Amino acid sequence: MNPFPEDVFTEPEDVDPDTLANLGPLRALAGVWEGRKGIDLNPKADGPERRAYLERIEMQPIDPQANGPQLFYGLRYHIHINTEEEDITFHEQVGYWLWEPATGLILQTLAIPRGQSALAAGRAKADGSGLSVRAERGSTEYGITSTAFLEYAFRTDSYELQITFNPDGSWSYVSDTMLSVHGRTEPFRHRDRNTLSKVAEPTPNPLALIEAAKRGAPELA
Ligand code: HEM
User: Fold this and answer.
1) Rounded alpha-carbon distances, angstroms, from residue 40 to 11, 15, 55, 206
2) Is the CB of 188 under 6 A from ligand 1?
3) Which of 25, 58, 168, 207 could form a disulfide with 124 if both were Cys (CB 3.0 to 4.6 A apart)?
4) CB 61 within 8 A of CB 27
């Protein structure tokens, strides 16, 4: 059944400009984070390679976004990863986390500078302990697109991310990217895991700062 309204143009009125107050389960991800105990399993010519990594993630609130009647609150994120042994970037990723309060839908967009992007969707766990999102190659809604070389050599069939909110305010993730590697018969589970601790609070979104300045609340501006 189609859950969408006939009127696809009219945007919601009286939208609260304060994103940090409306992020639902994504509120636990807002801020700047670091983790020093990441573990990556990646495909190499002579077999899986296991590497420890250092990670920094910035997740900053953006202004509320409307697709006609559909309203999202969200975070813009940047992940940067390197290793103790080498200064060169080990993994780099940008995108958005989005929360639709009306339905509980959670979206993560991913762009990776290998010529790959994905839109993953999911929900929070009912007990508030975390959330998960998933994308699958071939889906026109929550899918994965890759450059022709990756499609040939490291076809990416699915992506799944599980996040757990820890009692001390840190959070942990396990990310599984299923690759079909050229010349191999078995699928390869490219798995990454880490725990992130907060190193800085988020900066309120631009509209929240403007509204706060109008109200004469310069401590926010
Ligand atoms: C913490 C997160 C991640 C880390 C540290 C990481 C790291 C790596 C490393 C070191 C390689 C091997 C690179 C090489 O041999 O040139 C690799 C390969 C690959 N990764 Fe990731 N990755 C991460 C997440 C992801 C995600 C989320 C995706 C896609 C949704 C992805 C897609 C791929 C693909 C398609 C390859 C094979 C391409 C190749 O080896 O050139 N990775 N990754």
Assistant:
1) 43, 41, 11, 35
2) no
3) 25
4) no
What pLDDT, in 10s, does the model give residues 60-71? Answer: 999 999 999 999
CATH number for the domain that contains residue 133: 2.40.128.20
The three-state DSSP-derived secondary structure of 101-141 is: CCCCEEEEEEEECCCEEEEEEEEECCCCCEEEEEEECCCCC
Report the sign of the C-alpha dihedral through residues 17, 20, 25, 30, in that order: positive
Model confidence, pTM: 0.95
The total domain count for the chain is 1
Burial of 89 (0-12, 13-18, 19+ CB in 10 A): exposed
Nearest to 196 by CA among 66, 77, 62: 77
pLDDT digits (tens, 9 = 90+) for 27-86: 999 999 999 999 999 999 999 999 999 999 999 999 999 999 999 999 999 999 999 999
Atom of ligand 1 nearest to the CA of 53: 5
Residue 14 falls inside a structural domain: no
